[in-house]
């Protein structure tokens, strides 16, 4: 891996976002905005997520991935066009120019509200596929809800930094196409250059990642070097995705990243991919357009953008087929 000693991801205490200290809120928003304009990645501390919740989520994740393969494939993501369920080893290719991803994953999304009707082909929307594991659904629902609230707080910071009313994003993220994704990467020591997850940018507005102590996340700097983003105790890794980049007219930039597990240990992580509401129109924000900086991207709904990216990742989606 190329070294870039002067490129260090900032660690930002976001606790003031939940306070009444206006000066502290403004300072946190500026610090987050600076990270989004530069490397596009940052750690957050002071987030308020209970350690016990994270520990329970990791324990449930390990229980799921330790199930027999037949039990996991019975919940295969290919049985659902709305991106819920299990993805097996080498079933995804985040970087089409590299080897298939060497990881397992399990996707959870927002459960429909009573009486709510989803388009069956809408990505990351609709009923979940739950394993028959005691406490799994309850734990993952709690974790999902907690991450949703945290993502909403971070969007307040984005709005402040981008010169918008602080509640500007709220109507666009209250029914999000968000995905809670459990991940397990096999030990990579035997094939240290095989990607656990190929180089890619994330699709939505924001990703909030918890990772175990194995490490392996790598971030590409603006000059093309790859640097490590090691686990920081008690902190999450955050990065902006393509929707927020498009919304901000490249004021914020989504950043390529990958996972390379070069150790002799399994790697576990839990990612929360926060995509906006399906009908949210991702178009240049009013504060991000100037005569010298016209809109760089055509408007697109969050659902259509996510669908296009998932179709690139999964062959079964491109072929319009699903398992019976």
Task: Write a concise synopsis of the structure shown.
The chain has 324 residues and is of the alpha+beta class. The protein is 26% helix and 19% strand.
Distance between the termini: 43 Å
Taking the sheet with the most strands, its summary is: 8 strands, mixed
Mean pLDDT: 90
Shape descriptor reads globular
Spatial order of the strands in the main sheet? Answer: 1-2-10-7-12-5-4-3
Count the DSSP helices.
7
- What is the rounded Rg? 19 Å
Low-confidence stretches: 1-7, 316-324
Name of the level-1 CATH class: Mainly Beta
- CATH architectural category: Sandwich
- Annotation, overall tally of beta strands: 14
CATH superfamily: B-lactam Antibiotic, Isopenicillin N Synthase, Chain
The SS-based structural class is alpha+beta
Query: Can you tell me the CATH topology?
Result: Jelly Rolls
């Amino acid at each position: 891996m190329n070294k870039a000693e002067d490129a260090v991801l900032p660690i930002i205490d976001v606790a003031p976002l939940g306070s009444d200290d206006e000066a502290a809120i403004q300072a946190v928003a500026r610090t987050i905005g600076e990270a989004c304009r530069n490397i596009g990645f940052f750690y957050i501390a002071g987030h308020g997520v209970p350690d016990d919740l994270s520990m329970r989520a990791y324990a449930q994740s390990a229980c799921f991935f330790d199930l027999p393969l037949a039990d996991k494939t019975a919940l295969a993501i290919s049985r659902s066009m709305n991106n819920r369920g299990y993805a097996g080893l080498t079933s995804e290719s985040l970087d089409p120019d590299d080897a298939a991803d060497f990881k397992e994953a399990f996707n959870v999304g927002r459960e429909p509200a009573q009486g709510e009707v989803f388009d069956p082909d809408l990505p990351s929307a609709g009923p979940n596929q739950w394993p028959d594991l005691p406490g799994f659904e309850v734990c993952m629902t709690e974790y999902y809800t907690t991450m949703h609230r945290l993502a909403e707080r971070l969007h307040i910071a984005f709005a402040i930094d981008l010169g918008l009313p602080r509640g500007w994003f709220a109507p666009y993220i209250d029914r999000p196409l968000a995905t809670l994704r459990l991940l397990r990467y096999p030990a990579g020591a035997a094939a240290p250059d095989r990607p656990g997850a190929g180089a890619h940018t994330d699709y939505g507005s924001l990703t909030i990642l918890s990772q175990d102590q194995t490490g392996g996340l790598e971030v590409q700097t603006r000059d093309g070097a790859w640097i490590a983003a090691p686990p920081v105790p008690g902190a999450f890794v955050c990065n902006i995705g393509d929707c927020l980049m498009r919304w901000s007219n490249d004021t914020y930039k989504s950043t390529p990243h990958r996972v390379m597990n070069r150790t002799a240990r399994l790697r576990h992580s839990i990612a929360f991919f926060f995509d906006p509401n399906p009908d949210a129109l991702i178009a240049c924000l009013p504060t991000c357009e100037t005569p010298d900086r016209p809109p760089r991207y055509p408007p697109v709904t969050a659902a259509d953008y996510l669908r296009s990216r998932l179709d690139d990742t999964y062959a079964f989606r491109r072929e319009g087929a699903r398992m019976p």
